[in-house]
């Protein structure tokens, strides 16, 4: 089943030509290398941990298959490899000394470093996944810190990907949980695309949509089993993550896999949240908390009748371009973040008349859109329980964020990306602030979570 889905998906992908997910997939590395790179020389790139987990074995198998190889490039295991540009320079300079094709053996950070270094040497590469920890394996672009700022540097996805289920099952628990959260985030990102589509901001691309959404429920249905290392659940997770990356390749944008929940994550990432924690706070864990936050917001939005807005009143109170810029500047304290947020917000700015037109359209489409979004979503409480079952944090305090900063994230996250999401809808409909107040009121979704946490602290102290 999964093989057929992947073959279909590869048809749509621009960079990746082969994917092999199975129990003893390491066996297939020499053949996959030959299929994709002919008689080229290979170089295994890993870190101290992943070299022990799979790198040494891959090196041995390539040699045994008669492949010419170069001494593996192994980054130290300690301190943990960080996705910073100096590591790319290091690898790139050493790759330039020969013409070998890199075989990346690792997870997100290592893959991103190899992806970008290979691109800078104008070389394709191959990836062996060691954890089902995020959907970036088959995505283009690498998330790297350069000049003190985390950014996505452009570069093609790997030519071939191999994922050995036995290795993935034994990956550190928090990495698998992170991948699960990144995948479950597609529930809210899908809802955001439905909104952008209905408001004619960004049409749904049927292929990009279906690669990510068609099997999402099946991929995410058994978080507790996944946590226990169940084979089938692991296979579902890695299939979902890999197809999600292929969806981004096919649509040439991360819209297929990333909505407002990722904007929460990106904002926290840019502010360095959890960067010095051990292990550092993962992309998936930030996305997971963002997904609960956005699903909770959706509940309130769907209770409103957005077909019955005071369009005249909203048009009259709509900020001018200058006022919008001032308000964005007031919400950010870091100069880089402020500059980026102003640029992104103004890129999606519409005039008061355009706002009125959009709200007229919203009035027309709301009944149908509301039904579609309800079908796409899961209740916030259910998303929270599924994430907990997988071993993910689900509240701000668990990721080192205070309640006030968390509440402020709703408005701030809306400013950092031009992508249209439910945060924009709520802002334009004039209900974002009141919804956030409601979520954090004593009886609101987050108010109750905060209260139960305070309760357990009290019990612990007593
Ligand atoms: Zn993601």
Written overview of the protein:
The chain is α/β, with parallel strands linked by helices. It is built from 23 helices and 8 strands. The strands form 2 sheets. The protein has a 6-stranded parallel β-sheet with strand order 1-8-5-4-2-3, with helices on both faces. Strands 6-7 form a two-stranded antiparallel ribbon. A hairpin with a 2-residue loop joins strand 6 and strand 7. The longest helix has 25 residues. The protein is globular and about 75 Å long. The site of zinc ion (ZN) has 7 residues, from helix 14.
Q: Helix coverage percent of residues?
A: 55-70%
Number of beta strands? 8
Distance between termini? 54 Å
Q: Quote the beta fraction.
A: 5-15%
Strand order of the largest sheet: 1-8-5-4-2-3
Give start-end ranges of low-pLDDT stretches. Answer: none
User: What value does the Rg take, in angstroms?
Assistant: 23 Å
Dominant shape = globular
Topology:
Blueprint: H1 2-12, E1 18-22, H2 29-37, E2 42-47, H3 48-64, E3 69-75, H4 85-95, E4 101-106, H5 108-120, E5 126-129, E6 142-146, E7 149-153, E8 160-164, H6 165-169, H7 173-184, H8 186-198, H9 206-213, H10 216-219, H11 223-227, H12 231-251, H13 260-270, H14 283-303, H15 311-317, H16 321-331, H17 335-347, H18 352-376, H19 380-390, H20 403-415, H21 422-428, H22 432-440, H23 445-461
The chain binds zinc ion.
Residues 134-135, 182, 258, 262, 283, 287 line the site of zinc ion.
Give a summary of the structure in a few sentences.
With 462 residues, the protein is of the alpha/beta class.
Characteristics:
binds zinc ion; alpha/beta; globular; single chain; 23 helices; 462 residues
């Amino acid at each position: 089943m999964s093989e057929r889905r992947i073959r279909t998906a590869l048809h749509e992908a621009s960079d990746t030509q082969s994917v092999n997910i199975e129990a003893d997939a390491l066996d297939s590395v020499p053949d996959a290398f030959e299929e994709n790179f002919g008689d080229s020389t290979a170089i295994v790139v890993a870190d101290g941990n992943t070299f022990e987990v799979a790198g040494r074995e891959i090196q041995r198998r390539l040699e045994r298959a008669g492949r010419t190889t170069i001494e593996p490039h192994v980054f130290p295991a300690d301190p943990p490899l960080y996705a910073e540009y100096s590591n790319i320079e290091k690898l790139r300079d050493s790759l330039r000394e020969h013409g070998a094709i890199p075989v990346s053996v690792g997870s997100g950070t290592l893959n991103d470093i190899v992806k970008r270094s290979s691109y800078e040497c104008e070389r394709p590469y191959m990836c062996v996944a060691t954890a089902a920890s995020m959907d970036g394996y088959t995505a283009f672009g690498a998330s790297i810190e350069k000049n003190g700022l985390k950014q996505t540097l452009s570069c093609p996805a790997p030519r071939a990907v191999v994922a050995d289920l036995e290795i993935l099952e034994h990956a550190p628990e928090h990495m698998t949980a992170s991948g699960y959260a990144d995948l479950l985030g597609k529930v809210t990102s899908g809802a955001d695309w439905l909104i952008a589509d209905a408001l004619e901001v960004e049409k749904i691309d049927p292929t990009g949509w279906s690669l990510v959404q068609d099997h999402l429920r099946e991929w995410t249905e058994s978080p507790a089993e996944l946590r226990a290392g169940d084979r089938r659940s692991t296979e579902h997770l890695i299939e979902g993550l890999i197809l999600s990356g292929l969806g981004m390749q096919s649509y040439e944008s991360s819209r297929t896999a990333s909505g407002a929940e990722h904007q929460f994550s990106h904002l926290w990432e840019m502010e360095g949240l959890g960067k010095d924690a051990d292990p550092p706070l993962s992309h998936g864990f930030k996305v997971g908390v963002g997904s609960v936050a956005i699903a909770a917001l959706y509940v309130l939005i769907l209770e409103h009748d957005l077909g019955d807005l005071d369009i005249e009143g909203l048009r009259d109170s709509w900020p001018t371009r200058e006022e919008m810029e001032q308000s964005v500047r007031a919400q950010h304290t870091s100069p880089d973040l402020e500059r980026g947020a102003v640029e992104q917000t103004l890129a999606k700015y519409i005039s008061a008349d355009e706002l009125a037109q959009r709200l007229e359209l919203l009035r027309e489409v709301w009944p149908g859109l509301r039904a579609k979004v309800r079908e796409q979503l899961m209740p916030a409480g259910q998303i929270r329980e599924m994430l907990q079952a997988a071993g993910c944090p689900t509240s701000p305090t668990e990721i080192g964020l205070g309640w006030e900063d968390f509440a402020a994230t709703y408005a701030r996250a809306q400013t950092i990306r031009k992508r249209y999401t439910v945060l924009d809808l709520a802002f334009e409909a004039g209900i974002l602030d009141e919804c956030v107040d409601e979520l954090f009121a004593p009886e609101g979704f987050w108010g109750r979570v905060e209260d139960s946490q305070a309760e357990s602290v009290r019990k612990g102290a007593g």
